[in-house]
Amino acid sequence: MALLLRFLFYAVFIRSIVLIVLGLHVRHRERLPRHGPAIIVANHNSHLDTMVLMSLFPLRLLPKLHPVAAMDYFLSSSLFSWFTVKVVGILPIKRTIARGDDNPLAPCDRALAEGQMLIVFPEGSRGEPEQLQSFKGGIARLAESNPAVPVIPVFLHGLGKALPKGEALLVPFFCDIFVGERLLWTGDRRSYMRQLDERMRQLALEGNFPTWE
Amino acid sequence: MQFEVAPNVLVALGGLYVILVIASAWVGMLRWRAPQKDRTELVQRIRSWWIIVTLFTVAMVMSRTVLVIFFAFVSFLALKEYLSVVPTRRADRRVLFWAYLAIPVQYYWVAQAWYGMFIIFIPVYVFLMLPLRMVVIGETKEFLRAAGTLHWGIMTLVFGISHIAYLLVLPETKNPAAGGAGLVLFLVFLTQFNDVAQYIWGKMLGRHKIIPHVSPNKTWEGFLGGVATTTLLSIVSATWLTPLRIESAAVAGLLISVAGFIGDVTISALKRDIGLKDSGSMLPGHGGILDRIDSLTYTAPLFFHFVYYLYY
User: Fold this and answer.
1) I need a surface site. Which of A105, B205, B213, B241 has the fewest CB within 10 A?
2) pLDDT digit string, tens, across residues B230-242
3) Does A166 touch chain B (CB under 8 A)?
4) pTM attached to this predicted model
5) Which residues does chain A have with pLDDT short of 50?
6) What is the DSSP letter of B177?
7) Distance between B250 CA and the closest CA of chain A, angstroms
8) Band of the pLDDT at B1, cuts 50, 70, 90?
9) Could you report the predicted ipTM of this complex, rounded to two decimals?
10) Cis peptide before A37, with omega less than 30 degrees from 0?
11) Farthest CA pair distance, chain B
Protein backbone atom coordinates (compact mmCIF):
# COMPACT_ATOMS: atom_id res chain seq x y z
CA MET A 1 0.00 0.00 0.00
CA ALA A 2 2.68 2.50 1.05
CA LEU A 3 4.87 1.33 -1.81
CA LEU A 4 2.00 1.92 -4.21
CA LEU A 5 1.60 5.42 -2.80
CA ARG A 6 5.32 5.96 -3.23
CA PHE A 7 5.10 4.97 -6.90
CA LEU A 8 2.16 7.30 -7.47
CA PHE A 9 3.86 10.12 -5.57
CA TYR A 10 7.10 9.93 -7.55
CA ALA A 11 5.94 8.59 -10.91
CA VAL A 12 2.98 10.95 -11.35
CA PHE A 13 3.19 13.93 -9.01
CA ILE A 14 6.93 14.52 -8.64
CA ARG A 15 7.90 13.64 -12.19
CA SER A 16 5.36 15.99 -13.70
CA ILE A 17 6.64 18.83 -11.52
CA VAL A 18 10.28 18.03 -12.10
CA LEU A 19 10.08 17.40 -15.83
CA ILE A 20 7.37 19.88 -16.93
CA VAL A 21 7.29 22.74 -14.44
CA LEU A 22 11.05 22.71 -13.87
CA GLY A 23 12.92 20.91 -16.63
CA LEU A 24 16.36 19.37 -16.17
CA HIS A 25 19.66 19.69 -17.97
CA VAL A 26 21.55 16.56 -16.94
CA ARG A 27 25.23 16.30 -17.78
CA HIS A 28 27.06 12.93 -17.61
CA ARG A 29 23.91 10.95 -16.85
CA GLU A 30 25.79 7.75 -17.75
CA ARG A 31 27.83 8.12 -14.53
CA LEU A 32 24.77 7.40 -12.35
CA PRO A 33 24.90 3.94 -10.73
CA ARG A 34 22.52 1.36 -12.17
CA HIS A 35 22.16 -0.75 -9.03
CA GLY A 36 22.85 -0.66 -5.32
CA PRO A 37 24.67 -0.34 -3.08
CA ALA A 38 25.67 3.22 -3.87
CA ILE A 39 25.80 6.62 -2.20
CA ILE A 40 24.72 9.74 -4.08
CA VAL A 41 26.21 12.89 -2.58
CA ALA A 42 24.82 16.31 -3.50
CA ASN A 43 24.77 19.93 -2.41
CA HIS A 44 21.54 21.00 -0.75
CA ASN A 45 19.52 24.16 -1.42
CA SER A 46 15.91 23.11 -1.63
CA HIS A 47 13.35 20.46 -0.77
CA LEU A 48 13.27 19.88 -4.52
CA ASP A 49 16.84 18.49 -4.46
CA THR A 50 15.68 15.09 -3.22
CA MET A 51 12.78 15.01 -5.66
CA VAL A 52 15.03 15.81 -8.61
CA LEU A 53 17.64 13.22 -7.62
CA MET A 54 14.94 10.56 -7.20
CA SER A 55 13.62 11.42 -10.69
CA LEU A 56 17.01 10.74 -12.27
CA PHE A 57 16.65 7.01 -11.64
CA PRO A 58 14.37 4.51 -13.39
CA LEU A 59 11.18 3.73 -11.46
CA ARG A 60 12.17 0.12 -10.84
CA LEU A 61 14.90 1.41 -8.49
CA LEU A 62 12.37 3.41 -6.45
CA PRO A 63 12.02 0.82 -3.62
CA LYS A 64 15.81 0.89 -3.22
CA LEU A 65 16.38 4.66 -3.15
CA HIS A 66 16.43 6.39 0.23
CA PRO A 67 17.23 10.00 1.01
CA VAL A 68 19.06 10.14 4.33
CA ALA A 69 17.33 12.80 6.42
CA ALA A 70 17.39 14.39 9.86
CA MET A 71 15.21 12.57 12.35
CA ASP A 72 14.39 15.71 14.39
CA TYR A 73 12.95 17.53 11.35
CA PHE A 74 11.30 14.78 9.35
CA LEU A 75 9.89 12.71 12.21
CA SER A 76 8.48 15.72 14.07
CA SER A 77 4.86 14.47 14.03
CA SER A 78 3.40 11.03 13.51
CA LEU A 79 1.47 11.88 10.33
CA PHE A 80 4.43 13.70 8.82
CA SER A 81 6.79 10.87 9.69
CA TRP A 82 4.42 8.30 8.15
CA PHE A 83 4.51 10.40 4.97
CA THR A 84 8.29 10.93 4.91
CA VAL A 85 9.24 7.37 5.81
CA LYS A 86 6.59 5.36 3.98
CA VAL A 87 5.82 7.56 0.95
CA VAL A 88 8.95 9.65 0.41
CA GLY A 89 11.09 6.75 1.57
CA ILE A 90 13.58 8.60 3.79
CA LEU A 91 16.07 6.90 6.02
CA PRO A 92 15.97 8.95 9.26
CA ILE A 93 19.16 9.47 11.25
CA LYS A 94 19.99 11.50 14.36
CA ARG A 95 21.70 14.82 13.84
CA THR A 96 22.94 15.28 17.38
CA ILE A 97 24.46 12.52 19.44
CA ALA A 98 24.33 12.24 23.20
CA ARG A 99 27.11 10.46 25.08
CA GLY A 100 26.59 6.72 25.04
CA ASP A 101 24.46 6.66 21.88
CA ASP A 102 25.09 4.06 19.21
CA ASN A 103 26.79 5.05 15.97
CA PRO A 104 24.20 7.37 14.36
CA LEU A 105 25.19 6.14 10.92
CA ALA A 106 24.48 2.49 11.73
CA PRO A 107 21.12 2.54 9.85
CA CYS A 108 22.99 3.72 6.74
CA ASP A 109 25.56 0.95 7.05
CA ARG A 110 22.76 -1.59 7.37
CA ALA A 111 20.92 -0.21 4.32
CA LEU A 112 24.08 -0.29 2.22
CA ALA A 113 24.75 -3.86 3.29
CA GLU A 114 21.27 -4.71 1.98
CA GLY A 115 22.18 -3.19 -1.40
CA GLN A 116 20.15 0.02 -1.03
CA MET A 117 21.05 3.36 -2.65
CA LEU A 118 21.35 6.34 -0.33
CA ILE A 119 21.03 10.02 -1.16
CA VAL A 120 23.10 12.09 1.23
CA PHE A 121 23.39 15.86 1.61
CA PRO A 122 26.60 16.37 3.58
CA GLU A 123 26.03 20.14 3.88
CA GLY A 124 23.80 19.13 6.79
CA SER A 125 20.82 21.34 6.02
CA ARG A 126 19.61 23.43 3.14
CA GLY A 127 21.99 26.38 2.93
CA GLU A 128 21.72 29.82 1.43
CA PRO A 129 20.37 29.33 -2.11
CA GLU A 130 22.93 28.64 -4.81
CA GLN A 131 25.97 28.73 -2.52
CA LEU A 132 28.16 25.72 -2.04
CA GLN A 133 28.88 25.05 1.65
CA SER A 134 31.66 22.83 2.84
CA PHE A 135 30.66 19.25 3.55
CA LYS A 136 30.38 17.79 7.01
CA GLY A 137 32.48 14.77 7.90
CA GLY A 138 29.80 12.11 8.32
CA ILE A 139 30.09 11.16 4.69
CA ALA A 140 33.76 10.26 5.22
CA ARG A 141 32.79 7.97 8.13
CA LEU A 142 30.21 6.33 5.91
CA ALA A 143 32.73 5.86 3.12
CA GLU A 144 35.31 4.52 5.55
CA SER A 145 33.02 1.84 6.91
CA ASN A 146 31.80 0.95 3.40
CA PRO A 147 34.96 1.30 1.28
CA ALA A 148 33.63 -0.88 -1.54
CA VAL A 149 30.45 1.18 -2.06
CA PRO A 150 30.71 3.71 -4.89
CA VAL A 151 30.14 7.36 -3.91
CA ILE A 152 28.83 9.52 -6.77
CA PRO A 153 29.00 13.31 -6.30
CA VAL A 154 26.21 15.30 -7.97
CA PHE A 155 26.16 19.08 -8.28
CA LEU A 156 22.72 20.72 -8.42
CA HIS A 157 22.03 24.25 -9.60
CA GLY A 158 18.84 26.23 -9.96
CA LEU A 159 16.66 24.44 -7.42
CA GLY A 160 17.46 27.03 -4.77
CA LYS A 161 16.11 29.60 -7.23
CA ALA A 162 12.94 27.59 -7.89
CA LEU A 163 12.11 26.81 -4.25
CA PRO A 164 14.56 28.23 -1.69
CA LYS A 165 14.47 27.46 2.02
CA GLY A 166 11.55 29.17 3.75
CA GLU A 167 9.51 29.75 0.57
CA ALA A 168 6.33 27.93 -0.40
CA LEU A 169 5.87 29.38 -3.91
CA LEU A 170 7.53 27.37 -6.64
CA VAL A 171 8.83 29.48 -9.55
CA PRO A 172 9.80 27.52 -12.68
CA PHE A 173 13.46 27.46 -13.69
CA PHE A 174 15.48 24.99 -15.72
CA CYS A 175 17.84 23.22 -13.35
CA ASP A 176 21.31 21.87 -14.01
CA ILE A 177 22.47 18.50 -12.74
CA PHE A 178 26.14 17.61 -13.18
CA VAL A 179 26.99 14.03 -12.27
CA GLY A 180 30.61 13.47 -11.22
CA GLU A 181 32.85 10.43 -11.45
CA ARG A 182 32.66 7.94 -8.59
CA LEU A 183 34.99 8.57 -5.68
CA LEU A 184 37.27 5.94 -4.22
CA TRP A 185 38.10 5.61 -0.56
CA THR A 186 41.49 7.30 -0.07
CA GLY A 187 42.55 5.63 3.15
CA ASP A 188 41.90 8.47 5.59
CA ARG A 189 39.03 10.83 6.26
CA ARG A 190 40.83 14.14 5.81
CA SER A 191 42.18 13.47 2.33
CA TYR A 192 38.84 11.91 1.41
CA MET A 193 36.97 15.10 2.36
CA ARG A 194 39.49 17.19 0.44
CA GLN A 195 38.95 15.04 -2.63
CA LEU A 196 35.16 15.27 -2.30
CA ASP A 197 35.15 19.05 -1.82
CA GLU A 198 37.48 19.43 -4.77
CA ARG A 199 35.30 17.17 -6.96
CA MET A 200 32.21 19.26 -6.11
CA ARG A 201 34.00 22.50 -6.87
CA GLN A 202 35.15 21.14 -10.23
CA LEU A 203 31.60 20.07 -11.08
CA ALA A 204 30.27 23.51 -10.12
CA LEU A 205 32.81 25.09 -12.48
CA GLU A 206 31.37 23.15 -15.44
CA GLY A 207 28.37 25.47 -15.43
CA ASN A 208 28.09 29.02 -16.67
CA PHE A 209 25.41 30.36 -14.38
CA PRO A 210 23.73 33.78 -14.50
CA THR A 211 23.96 35.96 -11.43
CA TRP A 212 21.11 35.75 -8.96
CA GLU A 213 21.17 38.01 -5.96
CA MET B 1 -13.30 14.33 -31.45
CA GLN B 2 -13.73 17.09 -33.98
CA PHE B 3 -11.92 16.80 -37.27
CA GLU B 4 -12.11 19.90 -39.37
CA VAL B 5 -8.63 20.25 -40.82
CA ALA B 6 -8.76 21.69 -44.32
CA PRO B 7 -7.62 19.30 -47.08
CA ASN B 8 -4.90 21.70 -48.25
CA VAL B 9 -3.40 21.64 -44.76
CA LEU B 10 -3.42 17.85 -44.72
CA VAL B 11 -1.61 17.78 -48.05
CA ALA B 12 0.95 20.32 -46.78
CA LEU B 13 1.47 18.26 -43.63
CA GLY B 14 1.90 15.19 -45.79
CA GLY B 15 4.55 17.15 -47.67
CA LEU B 16 6.34 17.84 -44.38
CA TYR B 17 6.42 14.14 -43.59
CA VAL B 18 7.78 13.42 -47.08
CA ILE B 19 10.58 15.94 -46.41
CA LEU B 20 11.30 14.29 -43.05
CA VAL B 21 11.40 10.84 -44.61
CA ILE B 22 13.80 12.11 -47.30
CA ALA B 23 15.98 13.80 -44.66
CA SER B 24 16.10 10.62 -42.56
CA ALA B 25 16.87 8.49 -45.60
CA TRP B 26 19.59 10.90 -46.67
CA VAL B 27 21.25 10.79 -43.25
CA GLY B 28 20.92 7.01 -43.24
CA MET B 29 22.72 6.90 -46.58
CA LEU B 30 25.47 9.25 -45.34
CA ARG B 31 26.02 6.97 -42.37
CA TRP B 32 26.11 3.91 -44.59
CA ARG B 33 28.62 5.51 -46.95
CA ALA B 34 30.96 6.86 -44.25
CA PRO B 35 30.08 5.22 -40.93
CA GLN B 36 33.17 6.53 -39.11
CA LYS B 37 32.10 10.19 -39.25
CA ASP B 38 30.23 11.59 -36.26
CA ARG B 39 26.78 12.79 -37.30
CA THR B 40 25.12 12.74 -33.89
CA GLU B 41 23.99 16.34 -34.11
CA LEU B 42 22.38 15.95 -37.53
CA VAL B 43 20.66 12.71 -36.50
CA GLN B 44 19.37 14.27 -33.27
CA ARG B 45 18.26 17.36 -35.13
CA ILE B 46 16.11 15.39 -37.56
CA ARG B 47 14.76 13.22 -34.74
CA SER B 48 13.72 16.38 -32.86
CA TRP B 49 11.96 17.61 -36.00
CA TRP B 50 10.04 14.34 -36.22
CA ILE B 51 8.85 14.81 -32.66
CA ILE B 52 7.90 18.48 -33.15
CA VAL B 53 5.97 17.81 -36.36
CA THR B 54 4.21 14.80 -34.83
CA LEU B 55 3.17 16.74 -31.70
CA PHE B 56 1.93 19.56 -33.92
CA THR B 57 -0.09 17.14 -36.05
CA VAL B 58 -1.63 15.41 -33.04
CA ALA B 59 -2.56 18.75 -31.45
CA MET B 60 -4.08 20.00 -34.69
CA VAL B 61 -6.17 16.89 -35.26
CA MET B 62 -7.51 17.06 -31.69
CA SER B 63 -8.85 20.59 -31.83
CA ARG B 64 -8.02 24.24 -32.37
CA THR B 65 -7.93 24.83 -28.61
CA VAL B 66 -5.39 22.06 -28.12
CA LEU B 67 -3.24 23.70 -30.78
CA VAL B 68 -3.50 27.05 -28.97
CA ILE B 69 -2.41 25.28 -25.76
CA PHE B 70 0.48 23.75 -27.71
CA PHE B 71 1.76 27.25 -28.54
CA ALA B 72 1.14 28.43 -24.96
CA PHE B 73 3.39 25.58 -23.87
CA VAL B 74 6.05 26.67 -26.38
CA SER B 75 5.90 30.17 -24.84
CA PHE B 76 6.21 28.67 -21.36
CA LEU B 77 9.26 26.59 -22.27
CA ALA B 78 10.88 29.54 -24.04
CA LEU B 79 10.25 31.99 -21.20
CA LYS B 80 11.51 29.45 -18.67
CA GLU B 81 14.65 28.91 -20.68
CA TYR B 82 15.15 32.66 -21.03
CA LEU B 83 14.66 33.36 -17.32
CA SER B 84 17.03 30.52 -16.47
CA VAL B 85 19.93 31.90 -18.53
CA VAL B 86 19.63 35.66 -17.97
CA PRO B 87 20.61 37.29 -14.67
CA THR B 88 17.58 37.71 -12.40
CA ARG B 89 17.19 39.13 -8.91
CA ARG B 90 16.44 36.98 -5.94
CA ALA B 91 13.97 39.60 -4.76
CA ASP B 92 11.96 39.15 -7.97
CA ARG B 93 10.88 35.53 -7.47
CA ARG B 94 7.25 36.56 -7.08
CA VAL B 95 7.49 38.96 -10.01
CA LEU B 96 8.72 36.12 -12.21
CA PHE B 97 5.80 34.01 -11.05
CA TRP B 98 3.43 36.78 -12.23
CA ALA B 99 5.28 36.91 -15.51
CA TYR B 100 4.59 33.20 -15.99
CA LEU B 101 0.92 33.79 -15.19
CA ALA B 102 0.76 36.18 -18.14
CA ILE B 103 1.09 33.14 -20.45
CA PRO B 104 -2.26 31.40 -19.72
CA VAL B 105 -4.02 34.77 -19.66
CA GLN B 106 -2.57 35.89 -22.99
CA TYR B 107 -3.45 32.55 -24.64
CA TYR B 108 -6.91 32.71 -23.12
CA TRP B 109 -7.54 35.90 -25.11
CA VAL B 110 -6.28 34.02 -28.15
CA ALA B 111 -8.58 31.04 -27.58
CA GLN B 112 -11.50 33.46 -27.13
CA ALA B 113 -10.43 35.34 -30.29
CA TRP B 114 -10.66 38.55 -28.24
CA TYR B 115 -8.43 40.67 -30.45
CA GLY B 116 -8.53 43.86 -28.35
CA MET B 117 -7.23 42.17 -25.20
CA PHE B 118 -4.81 40.00 -27.16
CA ILE B 119 -3.12 43.04 -28.61
CA ILE B 120 -2.90 45.24 -25.49
CA PHE B 121 -2.69 42.85 -22.54
CA ILE B 122 1.09 42.43 -22.55
CA PRO B 123 2.24 45.76 -24.05
CA VAL B 124 0.00 47.74 -21.69
CA TYR B 125 -1.23 45.84 -18.64
CA VAL B 126 1.65 43.46 -18.01
CA PHE B 127 4.12 46.20 -18.88
CA LEU B 128 2.60 48.45 -16.22
CA MET B 129 1.80 45.88 -13.55
CA LEU B 130 5.10 43.96 -13.23
CA PRO B 131 7.09 47.08 -12.22
CA LEU B 132 4.34 47.80 -9.70
CA ARG B 133 4.83 44.33 -8.23
CA MET B 134 8.58 44.99 -8.10
CA VAL B 135 8.09 48.32 -6.33
CA VAL B 136 5.88 46.68 -3.71
CA ILE B 137 8.73 44.25 -2.96
CA GLY B 138 10.95 47.29 -2.67
CA GLU B 139 14.35 46.22 -4.02
CA THR B 140 15.70 49.19 -6.04
CA LYS B 141 19.17 47.87 -6.84
CA GLU B 142 19.31 46.97 -10.56
CA PHE B 143 15.60 47.82 -10.82
CA LEU B 144 15.75 49.09 -14.38
CA ARG B 145 17.83 46.17 -15.62
CA ALA B 146 15.46 43.67 -14.02
CA ALA B 147 12.31 45.34 -15.35
CA GLY B 148 13.80 45.67 -18.84
CA THR B 149 15.06 42.09 -18.95
CA LEU B 150 11.71 40.72 -17.92
CA HIS B 151 9.65 42.82 -20.30
CA TRP B 152 11.89 42.03 -23.26
CA GLY B 153 11.45 38.32 -22.54
CA ILE B 154 7.67 38.51 -22.22
CA MET B 155 7.28 40.66 -25.32
CA THR B 156 9.32 38.39 -27.59
CA LEU B 157 8.50 34.96 -26.16
CA VAL B 158 4.90 35.36 -25.04
CA PHE B 159 3.41 38.30 -26.96
CA GLY B 160 5.42 37.65 -30.14
CA ILE B 161 4.91 33.87 -30.22
CA SER B 162 1.20 34.17 -29.34
CA HIS B 163 0.71 35.78 -32.78
CA ILE B 164 1.25 32.34 -34.32
CA ALA B 165 -1.65 31.03 -32.25
CA TYR B 166 -3.87 34.00 -33.13
CA LEU B 167 -3.54 33.07 -36.83
CA LEU B 168 -5.54 29.95 -35.90
CA VAL B 169 -8.57 31.89 -34.70
CA LEU B 170 -8.82 34.37 -37.59
CA PRO B 171 -12.14 33.96 -39.45
CA GLU B 172 -11.94 30.85 -41.65
CA THR B 173 -14.10 32.44 -44.35
CA LYS B 174 -11.25 34.71 -45.46
CA ASN B 175 -9.06 31.73 -46.19
CA PRO B 176 -11.47 28.91 -47.10
CA ALA B 177 -8.80 26.77 -48.74
CA ALA B 178 -6.66 26.24 -45.63
CA GLY B 179 -7.98 28.31 -42.70
CA GLY B 180 -5.89 29.43 -39.76
CA ALA B 181 -3.85 26.23 -39.67
CA GLY B 182 -2.76 26.96 -43.24
CA LEU B 183 -1.40 30.37 -42.23
CA VAL B 184 0.46 28.81 -39.29
CA LEU B 185 2.04 26.13 -41.45
CA PHE B 186 2.99 28.72 -44.06
CA LEU B 187 4.62 31.03 -41.48
CA VAL B 188 6.42 28.36 -39.47
CA PHE B 189 7.59 26.36 -42.47
CA LEU B 190 8.88 29.40 -44.38
CA THR B 191 10.66 30.71 -41.28
CA GLN B 192 12.44 27.41 -40.62
CA PHE B 193 13.08 26.88 -44.34
CA ASN B 194 14.65 30.36 -44.49
CA ASP B 195 17.05 29.47 -41.64
CA VAL B 196 18.18 26.39 -43.52
CA ALA B 197 18.37 28.20 -46.88
CA GLN B 198 20.50 31.02 -45.45
CA TYR B 199 22.78 28.42 -43.86
CA ILE B 200 23.19 26.42 -47.08
CA TRP B 201 23.76 29.47 -49.32
CA GLY B 202 26.29 30.75 -46.77
CA LYS B 203 28.12 27.40 -46.78
CA MET B 204 28.24 27.33 -50.58
CA LEU B 205 29.02 30.92 -51.50
CA GLY B 206 29.60 32.78 -48.23
CA ARG B 207 32.42 35.35 -48.42
CA HIS B 208 31.43 38.75 -47.05
CA LYS B 209 30.54 38.85 -43.38
CA ILE B 210 27.29 40.62 -42.71
CA ILE B 211 27.37 41.18 -38.94
CA PRO B 212 30.75 39.89 -37.68
CA HIS B 213 30.50 41.08 -34.09
CA VAL B 214 27.23 39.32 -33.39
CA SER B 215 27.26 36.27 -35.63
CA PRO B 216 30.63 35.70 -37.33
CA ASN B 217 29.40 32.87 -39.56
CA LYS B 218 26.62 34.87 -41.24
CA THR B 219 27.40 36.26 -44.70
CA TRP B 220 25.73 38.53 -47.24
CA GLU B 221 25.70 35.68 -49.74
CA GLY B 222 23.84 33.44 -47.30
CA PHE B 223 21.41 36.18 -46.36
CA LEU B 224 20.57 37.20 -49.94
CA GLY B 225 20.44 33.60 -51.16
CA GLY B 226 18.01 32.81 -48.37
CA VAL B 227 15.87 35.86 -49.11
CA ALA B 228 15.63 34.89 -52.78
CA THR B 229 14.84 31.23 -52.14
CA THR B 230 12.31 31.93 -49.41
CA THR B 231 10.54 34.58 -51.48
CA LEU B 232 10.32 32.16 -54.37
CA LEU B 233 8.91 29.42 -52.14
CA SER B 234 6.45 31.92 -50.69
CA ILE B 235 5.13 32.79 -54.14
CA VAL B 236 4.81 29.12 -55.06
CA SER B 237 3.06 27.98 -51.87
CA ALA B 238 0.98 31.03 -50.85
CA THR B 239 -2.07 30.25 -52.96
CA TRP B 240 -2.22 26.75 -51.49
CA LEU B 241 -2.19 27.83 -47.84
CA THR B 242 -3.03 31.54 -47.57
CA PRO B 243 -5.33 34.17 -49.07
CA LEU B 244 -2.25 36.06 -50.38
CA ARG B 245 -2.12 36.94 -54.09
CA ILE B 246 1.13 36.73 -55.98
CA GLU B 247 2.41 40.28 -55.27
CA SER B 248 1.56 40.13 -51.60
CA ALA B 249 3.04 36.62 -51.40
CA ALA B 250 6.32 38.04 -52.67
CA VAL B 251 6.21 40.77 -49.99
CA ALA B 252 5.38 38.15 -47.33
CA GLY B 253 8.36 36.07 -48.46
CA LEU B 254 10.66 39.09 -48.24
CA LEU B 255 9.23 39.98 -44.85
CA ILE B 256 9.69 36.49 -43.43
CA SER B 257 13.21 36.04 -44.75
CA VAL B 258 14.50 39.45 -43.62
CA ALA B 259 12.68 39.36 -40.27
CA GLY B 260 13.78 35.77 -39.68
CA PHE B 261 17.38 36.85 -40.10
CA ILE B 262 16.90 39.72 -37.61
CA GLY B 263 15.24 37.43 -35.05
CA ASP B 264 18.09 34.95 -35.40
CA VAL B 265 20.84 37.52 -34.83
CA THR B 266 18.93 39.20 -31.98
CA ILE B 267 18.92 35.95 -30.00
CA SER B 268 22.57 35.46 -31.03
CA ALA B 269 23.37 38.87 -29.52
CA LEU B 270 21.55 37.87 -26.34
CA LYS B 271 23.50 34.61 -26.10
CA ARG B 272 26.78 36.39 -26.81
CA ASP B 273 25.97 38.90 -24.08
CA ILE B 274 25.55 36.18 -21.46
CA GLY B 275 28.29 33.95 -22.83
CA LEU B 276 26.37 30.91 -24.07
CA LYS B 277 26.68 28.77 -27.18
CA ASP B 278 23.24 27.18 -27.00
CA SER B 279 20.38 28.49 -24.89
CA GLY B 280 19.69 25.04 -23.47
CA SER B 281 19.52 21.34 -24.29
CA MET B 282 15.77 20.93 -24.55
CA LEU B 283 15.85 19.88 -28.23
CA PRO B 284 18.71 17.47 -28.91
CA GLY B 285 20.69 18.61 -31.97
CA HIS B 286 19.16 22.08 -31.99
CA GLY B 287 20.20 23.39 -28.58
CA GLY B 288 17.45 25.03 -26.61
CA ILE B 289 13.95 26.17 -27.46
CA LEU B 290 15.21 29.72 -27.96
CA ASP B 291 17.67 28.50 -30.60
CA ARG B 292 14.77 27.06 -32.56
CA ILE B 293 12.21 29.83 -32.25
CA ASP B 294 14.62 32.79 -32.46
CA SER B 295 13.55 33.70 -36.01
CA LEU B 296 9.87 33.23 -35.18
CA THR B 297 10.00 35.93 -32.50
CA TYR B 298 10.31 38.41 -35.37
CA THR B 299 8.50 36.72 -38.24
CA ALA B 300 5.35 35.83 -36.25
CA PRO B 301 4.17 39.34 -35.27
CA LEU B 302 5.30 40.91 -38.57
CA PHE B 303 3.67 38.30 -40.80
CA PHE B 304 0.54 38.34 -38.66
CA HIS B 305 0.05 42.10 -38.97
CA PHE B 306 0.82 42.02 -42.69
CA VAL B 307 -1.91 39.45 -43.31
CA TYR B 308 -4.25 41.05 -40.77
CA TYR B 309 -3.97 44.44 -42.42
CA LEU B 310 -4.60 43.06 -45.89
CA TYR B 311 -7.44 40.61 -45.25
CA TYR B 312 -9.02 40.71 -41.81
Assistant:
1) B213
2) 999 999 999 999 9
3) no
4) 0.92
5) none
6) T
7) 40
8) very low
9) 0.89
10) yes
11) 64
